[in-house]
Amino acid sequence: MRLAFLGAGRMGGAFLEALLHAGVSTPDQCIAADPLSERQLALQQQLGVRTTPDNREASQSADVLFLAVKPQQLQAVLQEIAPTVEQQNPLVISIAAGKRLAFLERYLPNARIIRVMPNVCCLIGEGMNVFTPGTLATPHDRATAQRLLSACGKTLELPEPLFDAVTALSGSGPAFFARFLLALTEAAVAEGLSEADARRLAVQTMLGTARMLAGPQPDPKMLIAMVASPQGTTAEGLKTLDQSDFDALVRRMVAAAARRSRELSEG
After folding, report:
1. CA distance 65 to 25
2. pLDDT in tens, 129-156
3. Number of helical H runs and strand E runs in the chain
4. Within a 10 A sphere around the Cβ of 171, how many other Cβ atoms?
5. Helix or strand (DSSP H, E) at 64
6. Is 51 in contact with 43 (CB distance < 8 Å)?
7. Distance (Å, rounded) from C-alpha 32 to C-alpha 206?
8. pTM of the model
9. Rounded to an integer, what distance in angstroms lies between the CA atom of residue 253 and that of residue 39?
């Protein structure tokens, strides 16, 4: 499968590397367009793919065209590649943050488009990739997108009106989890642990908890009950969370992120 990436920074480069490692394509069938010559050289050396500073050149022979440029650059890129996309008719997969299908289809009206909301965990192959098909995308296109995105983590197809909530949860979620882990670490340091030991304990605890919740019985309430014996240490700590209205605070946090996602999408 011939793949082209317009934008090969952290996220675009992570997708490209994951797809090569999964055997979806080979380096000689891939091309990446990036304006930075040092980034082009790094991709050539690390992945063995062809590179170019020219978006139109990269688009000319692709079966699948990934849009991985910054949102503020997307309009100019779409206008630049529109004639090539019209002629070649690749499947277009956009991972440009906050840009809706209507925006993409305004500049590529005859293209088969899939919009994706990834998250930063794609960098280690553990991403959560939510996608939605455009007006002209076929069932085969949706299956192709799911297969490609699976190389970078888990996938889920949802309607576009839910993407602001998705952005607030899985898109922003890594930062939210990291912020809570940082708070746990600092609290444990205040109780006497070294920062290194506290960080190691917190990270492994978060990792183990996530794996348990991803298992055959992914019920957070059951896990809480398993750990929080009556009148024990966990129950006492949870009581403090309940008294501080922790759930309401999290709801406000997610609502704020979703609201900002809507503002950026409409801007």
Report:
1. 13
2. 999 999 999 999 999 999 999 999 999 9
3. 12, 8
4. 23
5. strand 64-67
6. yes
7. 35
8. 0.92
9. 35
